[in-house]
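Following up on my earlier thread - several people asked me to post the actual chain instead of describing it. Fair enough. Here it is, all 242 residues.
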Amino acid sequence: MRLKCLKHLEPPERISPSDWLQRHVTMPAGTETGGMPFSLAAFPHLDGPLEAFGDATVRRIILQWGTRLGKTTLCLSLAAFVAAVHPRNMMFASSTQSAAIRVVTSRLYPLLAAADVVKDQLLPAVRRSQLQVKLAACRIFVGWSGSDTSLADVGAWYGVANEIDKWDQTASDEADSLQLFVNRFKGFTNHKLIFESTPTIRGRSRIEHLLLGSNRHQRYVPCPHCGTFQVLRKGTENSPGG
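Reply from S.P.:
Thanks for posting it. Predicted structure:
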């Protein structure tokens, strides 16, 4: 017991989130990249959010992205980073209870179990809860919109608000669910929050509203013909992309 206590008193490892993820995180089985290490070569657009997460002056990261671009993979991988390097309580919240549990059971637990320096912190599979991930030195609480109970009475340092444009804005009797989520982190002045979603209706989208109040960073890529850096845009039925 003394040795276990001393382990948690050791100074945290000084390493960037990007370097740590590429060194320790392996994509869980059952995903498109199952068994492969976390790689910025496969997800080069994650370098900006990872740099922001490692920046001590950044509190909120807003990701208005399309589908299948690694939003959830990034957020869950950073939970493994926090558990291993700076153990503090966390919260993952999604639009519904079933959506939150699905991510926890099919993606979060397998990812943590595949991370070489985190897997030993997990409870045996038969004792794992769908509503709270218990690790050796911290907890990952699970919440969902419309549930005052799941979004209250806990404190956390790192939080993920998953697919916030799908959150129910009317289901809670106490307050807006997203604000209840944000309130969980007031106890930590240096907390980290990631809000992510694909956008829905312009002017009514939660993620758009947050993005417009942010620095509005965009991904620039070099033109394959002239090398000029420019924003990569998808085409529509009326205009070509490029």
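The two ends are 59 Å apart (CA to CA). That should answer part of your original question.
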